[in-house]
Each structure stands twice: as C-alpha cells, then as structure tokens.
C-alpha cells in the first residue's frame, strides 16, 4: 500500500466503506425539504422497492458531518419497532467532481452527498389532515393515537426522547400504520447523569413547557435511572397533546377560541427561526400554557416553587385551569386522558404506557384496525404546501383576470377501500358531526364483556402483548411492551350507563364540531416529512458564548 | 473545565485527576500498540500492511508530537469531556476489529485519534467545537478532517453507540493496562506542565497549521 504523497490523501483509492451508491436508486419525486436536505421518494432499481431518501447536506465545511444526522443515525440504529421509522441503510453519491481533479489542498473536500434510506411512507399526518375534505373518524383517531403512544412508549423504554413530535414527523402508510420519524432532535437519556438535555433546542411552543418545567425538573431528579419515567412522562404529554390537539381540535380551533391555540403545533411556524427570539418569547409561551392548564402552584405541583426557573417564569397573575372549558366538546374519556396528559406536575402526568390503558381507548368507538382504514393518494406536507402555494398563485392570477375558480375540494379524492364506509367528506360546515364511525358493536355502551373487534394480534403490535394484553376487564393483565402490572383491582371508573348518550358522542374527539375548515388557513410548521426539523435554531450543539462558534452551521 | 456528560456513558469521577488518568492510560495503550505495530510494519514481511481500511488516515511521516502530548493538546484546547477519549479509543478498537488487516501505527495514529475523539465529542457532548476547530487543534486541514470523519463513520458503519456497559468494561481494561505498566504511580503527574506551550503544530505532511484560534 502506498502512502499518500505529501499534501495528498489517498483519494485515488476507492472509498473503503462498504456502503452502496445512491445510483442503486432512482429518484422519483421530492417529498420533503428539511434542515439538512431534501427528501425524495425513490425506487431501488434492483428490487423495485419504493424507499425514501433523505439527503444529508454536507456543505457546511466547518461543521463536517451534521451532528443532527449523527445523532439521528445513532438513535435509529437502536430502535426497531413497527411504529418507528426504519433506517434501512446509508448510501453515498460520489458527487459531481471526481477526485482526479482535486489534487490540490481541497482535493479532499467531499463533494458527494450522503443519503439515509428509509422505508417509504405514503403520508405524513399533517399532509393527510390537510387534504381537502379530509376528516378522521373517531375510531381512526384512536387508532393513530394508539400507534403513536405505542411508538412513544417503545422509545421511552429504550431511553430515547423524541422531542419533536408533530404532524409532519408522523408518517402514515396506506396500511394505516403510523410511525415516528425524524429523530434529529431526539436524545437518549440513559446514563445522562447531568441531565444535560439542553434547553436550547426549543423551536416550537409545545416544547416549551417540556423543557422549561420538566427538564429542569429532570435536571434535579434524574440522578439515577430509577427516575426515567418522569422524563418519559413529559414526552408523552407533549407529544400526545400535540396529537390530541391536532386530531381533536381539527379545523375548529380557530373558531373555538377566537385565536389560535397556544399549544397548537400547526400554528407555530413563525416561531421556529431564532434562538434569541425564543428566549425572548419564552415567558409569553409559558403564560399561554398556564392559561390553559392553570398556573403552577404548590397545590397542583408540590415543590414547583423551589424550581430554579420558577421565579423567572412564574405566572404574573393567578390563572385558572381552563382545560375542561376549552375542550368541552370532547367526550369525557378524551377529556380525561387529555387532562392527565396535560398535568403540569410531571410526576402526576400520565405515561405513554398508562395512556394506552386509558378508558379512551376502551370505549366505543374502539380504535379501528389500521388495515381497515381508507387508502389515500399520497400526501406529504411538503406537497400539500406546494400545491397550496400554487393554488394561491393560481387564485391570485385568477383574481386578476376576474375569473371564477371551481372550489378546491375536487383535489385528491380519497380512494375508498371496499367495505369500510368512512364518511370522509365533511358533512357540511355547521352540521354537528356525530360519530362518524359506525359503532363496531351496537348495543349497550358499557365496555365490559364487549367483544373487541379483531382483537389480539392485529390490533396490537407484535411485541406488545398480543394475546390479550389489553384485556377489557383489566384483570391485572399486562400491556404494552413489558407486560408490566397495570393498576389492579381498579373498579370501572364509569358505570356502564353513566356514559352520556350511549351512541353518538357529539363529535367528541373526532375533529370537532364541524366547520371551520378553510383551505389555506393553518400555518403549518416548515419541516418536511421525514422530518428534519423546524428551523435554524434547533440542534443540540448550539454553542455557548465562550466557544466562539457560529450558529450558521445548519444552513 | 467545561465537561458535559454524554448520553451513553457512565459517570467517571469527573475530576481533573480522572482526566489525567484517562489520557495517560489511553496514550500508554496506544503507544504500546504503535510500537508493536511499527515493528511489524518494518519487518521484511509486508503482508500485514496490505489493508486498505485505514489508508486514508496514513501520513507520509510520523508527526513529531508524541501521542500523549497530542491527546493532552486535544483535551486542553477542545475541553471535550474525558469520556470522549475513552469512546474515541473504543471507536479505534472497533475499527481495528472490523478491519483486522489494518494496523494502527505511528503514521496514522494521530489522525485516527483526532477524528475519533472529535466524533465521540459530537456524539456525546452537548457542547462541542466544530470540525474547523478540531482541525486546527489537530494540525490538519478542515477539509481533510471532514474527509477523515466521513471515512471513520463509514468504516464504523455508523455504530457510534457505546453502551454504558461497554464503556465500563473499556475503562476497566484501560485501568488494568495502566497497572501492568506501573503507571499508576504517576497519577499526580501534572498535566499542565507537560503540555507544550506551543499553540501551533502540524500533523499534516505539508499543510501549514496555525494556532487553534476559535475566532477564525
């Protein structure tokens, strides 16, 4: 083997890595745009398999390989679950400039690209929810929610906090499977004795409370592994909340409060840009949270006044919890779960695992089988956004020409599956929406002894507790992954007849009470599907002042 | 001392003394490895040196700075957590195991150490310097370091996760190595005295390096 001549690095040698070239794939279409590069739908030429290619941008020379990518790869390599996106491999492209030309000092500049290869998913939740005329049935929402919580629980069991759950990072395929994606902000918290979960990663409002309350709390508490659950709780809370919010409020949130909801992940885009701005707005965001959940005090959160952040961030005036008021259109089980997820005190907050056991999932309408869900034409946030933009341009042009345009609902008609009759089209603006999912089992509403549709393996991911993990009677059956003990001997919280209206549940949880769906209205956060995040301020290695580092490494 | 704990490591005692010990142990182990491998390399039988795995890390001549001084230098300027050195060492060990025909010798050890520690710091530390800074500390060009980083990541097949159990066992291993070498008597060895005051070094063959000044 010849060593390189001075000033040269054996570039003439083929890369010693065993990775394949991106030429094995044929790019079909761009489906996302993120902080560290584009996402493409691609076909593996040899097998014809459709995959998603996420390009890792390598153009910031000073930073080298992006740290978010290193961390994402690192975390995805240890997560294998049907509700977590699977990283198949990493491929490279040689780049336009071949090494032969680059004999000078910058000859070792890597001009090619690196791609992460993921399984392809047809939709992301934001894209899907944003389809014109789209509405989810209650059973569908529960089905997604349960998958989300299952995936989250798996992450937490494996000591990973996702930290960036939002619609565009939840990918859904046409089999109805939901998977968590974009672990670029994720953090493992195993032996993290310093609990150095930096609070600088906040880009979105809904993360605020997590970082400013819970992680501060973790900072104090997470001295040993026994306390992991606390951390998990915070994640579950936020992430689930975000989901709940998106699902349940649906398009009605604008009407509901007259202003966009403080937690609303969909209205956060403007806030994702700069770190300084976030700090600047922090108290305001916290206040919004307190406005909803009530101000923290010793009564609802023992010990809170001793938190290091408390003096700086305590509410300026006493605030009452308005949760039940704001979400009064929710049915009681949804509201109960939401309330437990939105508990300020992390030690009282429900964990992802316990959330799976909530009444919400065990009352009609039950979560449906993913496979029974309708199939839709592929919809990613990136695309819907682009289409909307085009639409807007189109409309402007049309306006200028004083032309009338047909309504926009004609786009993207859902492909109805056989058999399942989900009313996919919104029944009209002011019409109250009743249970859009036909009750699986007609009859009395009490949940004991009621046959669960397609119970067992199909409804619960393998690795869970397939054969009856979620026993309707909860006779101490384990659930989730570990099969750990659920609260035993718990009486039924609600008498069977106590449910308001055995049948339709006034649109509860199902997308609100109708109306308010405006096509260009919601402000979605910028990140594309397959994640890659929400703006320049993210990234765990924002540098302290004494380190003289630029923030610009992510551009 | 700006030491942030990484997320896959177990806490070391986290004192200056520990750091010194860690650096010492690693440089001791590496030096022994390099000496042995250099002997193999200079032997008439060139078969052992046919591996391509580490060739990108190969320089033309061995840098004049010793391994221990080099480690100290990296630590002094980058303030990465001591665990990064252990994890960096684990990466190098993984590398050698994945590519058994490649030998860590005096021609490539510096680049390997620098790249591994940098990657470890990226993986573990919440706050870390960028590649440009590491390049200046290490005396190679930014673009070369980027290239080496990629090379390392792919050689490792991105298996950069080090569980706390693995971390612990490597720590024990290093400790033992030190005991065998009778180095533990030198624990109070004062690091700052022995770190050369020079702020410019060159490990690269022709590349001019300069002071690792973070401002540029």
From TrEMBL, chain A:
GO MF terms held by the record: ATP binding; RNA polymerase II CTD heptapeptide repeat kinase activity
Regions of compositional bias (Gly residues) in chain numbering: 500-519
Annotated stretches, region: Disordered: 372-555
Biased composition (Basic and acidic residues): 372-384
Protein name: Cyclin-dependent kinase C-2-like protein
The keyword S-adenosyl-L-methionine belongs to this UniProt entry's keyword annotation: no
A GO biological process held by the record: positive regulation of transcription elongation by RNA polymerase II
From TrEMBL, chain B:
Signal peptide per UniProt: none
Domain of life: Eukaryota
InterPro entries: Cyclin-like_sf, Cyclin_P/U, Cyclin_PHO80-like
Key word Metal-binding present: no
GO MF terms held by the record: protein kinase binding
GO biological process: cell division
The keyword Phosphoprotein belongs to this UniProt entry's keyword annotation: no
Keywords: Cell cycle, Cell division, Cyclin
Family that this chain belongs to: Belongs to the cyclin family. Cyclin U/P subfamily.
PANTHER family: CYCLIN-U1-1, PTHR15615
Stated name of the protein: Cyclin
Taxonomic lineage: Eukaryota, Viridiplantae, Streptophyta, Embryophyta, Tracheophyta
């Amino acid at each position: 083997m010849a060593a390189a001549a001075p000033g040269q690095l054996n570039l003439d040698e083929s890369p010693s890595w065993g990775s394949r070239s991106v030429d094995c794939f044929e790019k079909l279409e761009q489906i996302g745009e993120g902080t560290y590069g584009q996402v493409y739908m691609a076909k593996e030429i040899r097998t014809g398999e459709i995959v998603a290619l996420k390009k890792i941008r390598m153009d910031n020379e000073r930073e080298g390989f992006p740290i978010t990518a290193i961390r994402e790869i690192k975390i995805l390599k240890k997560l294998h679950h049907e509700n977590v996106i699977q990283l198949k491999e990493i491929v490279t492209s040689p780049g336009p400039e071949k090494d032969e030309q680059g004999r000078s000092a910058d000859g070792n500049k890597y001009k090619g690209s690196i791609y992460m290869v993921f399984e392809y998913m047809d939709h992301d939740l934001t894209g899907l929810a944003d389809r014109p005329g789209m509405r989810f049935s209650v059973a569908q929402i529960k089905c997604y929610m349960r998958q989300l919580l299952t995936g989250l629980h798996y992450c937490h069991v494996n000591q990973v906090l996702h930290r960036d759950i939002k619609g565009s990072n939840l990918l859904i395929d046409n089999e109805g499977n939901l998977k968590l994606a974009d672990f670029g902000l994720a953090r493992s918290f195993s032996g993290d004795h310093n609990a150095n979960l930096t609070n600088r990663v906040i880009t979105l409002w809904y993360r605020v409370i997590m970082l400013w309350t819970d992680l501060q709390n973790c900072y104090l508490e997470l001295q040993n592994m026994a306390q992991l659950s606390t951390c998990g709780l915070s994640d579950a809370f936020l992430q689930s909340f975000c989901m709940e919010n998106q699902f349940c409020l649906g398009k009605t949130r604008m009407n509901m409060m007259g202003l966009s909801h403080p937690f609303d992940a969909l209205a956060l885009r403007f806030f994702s840009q700069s770190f300084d701005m976030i700090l600047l707005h922090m108290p305001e965001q916290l206040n919004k949270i307190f406005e909803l959940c009530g101000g923290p005090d010793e009564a609802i959160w023992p010990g809170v006044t001793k938190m290091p952040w408390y003096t700086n961030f305590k509410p300026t005036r006493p605030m009452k919890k308005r949760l039940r008021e704001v979400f009064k259109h929710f049915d009681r089980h949804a509201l109960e779960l939401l309330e437990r997820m939105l508990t300020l005190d992390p030690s009282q907050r429900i964990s992802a695992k316990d959330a799976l056991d909530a009444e919400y999932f065990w009352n009609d309408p039950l979560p449906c089988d993913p496979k029974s869900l309708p199939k839709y034409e592929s919809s990613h946030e990136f695309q819907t956004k682009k289409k909307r933009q085009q639409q807007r341009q189109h409309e402007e042009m049309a306006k200028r020409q004083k032309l009338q345009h047909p309504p926009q609902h004609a786009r993207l008609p859902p492909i109805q599956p056989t058999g399942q009759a989900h009313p996919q089209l919104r029944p009209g603006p002011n019409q109250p929406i009743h249970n859009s999912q036909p009750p699986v089992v007609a009859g009395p509403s009490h949940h004991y002894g009621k046959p669960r549709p397609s119970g067992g393996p199909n409804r619960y991911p393998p690795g869970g507790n397939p054969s009856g993990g979620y026993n309707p009677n909860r006779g101490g059956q384990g659930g989730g992954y570990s099969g750990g003990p659920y609260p035993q001997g718990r009486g039924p919280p609600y008498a069977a007849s106590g449910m308001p209206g055995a049948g339709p549940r006034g649109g509860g949880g199902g997308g609100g009470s109708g109306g308010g769906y405006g096509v260009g209205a919601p402000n979605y956060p910028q990140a594309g599907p397959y994640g890659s995040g929400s703006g320049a301020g993210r990234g765990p290695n924002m540098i302290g002042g004494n380190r003289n580092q630029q923030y610009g490494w992510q551009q | 001392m700006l030491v942030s704990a990484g997320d896959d490591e177990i806490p070391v005692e986290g004192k200056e003394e520990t750091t010194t010990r860690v650096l010492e142990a690693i440089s001791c182990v590496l030096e022994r490895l390099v000496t042995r491998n250099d002997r193999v390399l200079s032997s008439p039988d060139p078969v052992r040196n046919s591996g391509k795995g580490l060739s990108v890390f190969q320089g033309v001549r061995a840098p004049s700075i010793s391994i221990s001084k080099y480690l100290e230098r990296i630590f002094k300027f980058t303030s990465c957590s001591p665990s990064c050195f252990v994890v960096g060492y684990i990466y190098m060990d993984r590398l050698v195991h994945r590519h058994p025909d490649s030998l860590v010798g005096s021609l490539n050890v510096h680049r390997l150490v620098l790249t591994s520690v940098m990657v470890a710091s990226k993986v573990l530390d919440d706050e870390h310097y960028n590649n440009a800074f590491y390049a200046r500390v290490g005396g190679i060009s930014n673009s070369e370091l980027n290239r080496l980083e990629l090379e390392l990541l792919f050689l490792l097949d991105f298996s950069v996760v080090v569980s706390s159990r693995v971390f612990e066992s490597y720590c024990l291993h290093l400790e033992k190595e030190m005991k065998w070498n009778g180095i533990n008597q030198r624990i109070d060895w004062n690091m700052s005295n022995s770190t050369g005051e020079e702020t410019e070094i060159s490990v690269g063959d022709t590349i001019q390096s300069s002071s690792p000044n973070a401002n540029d």
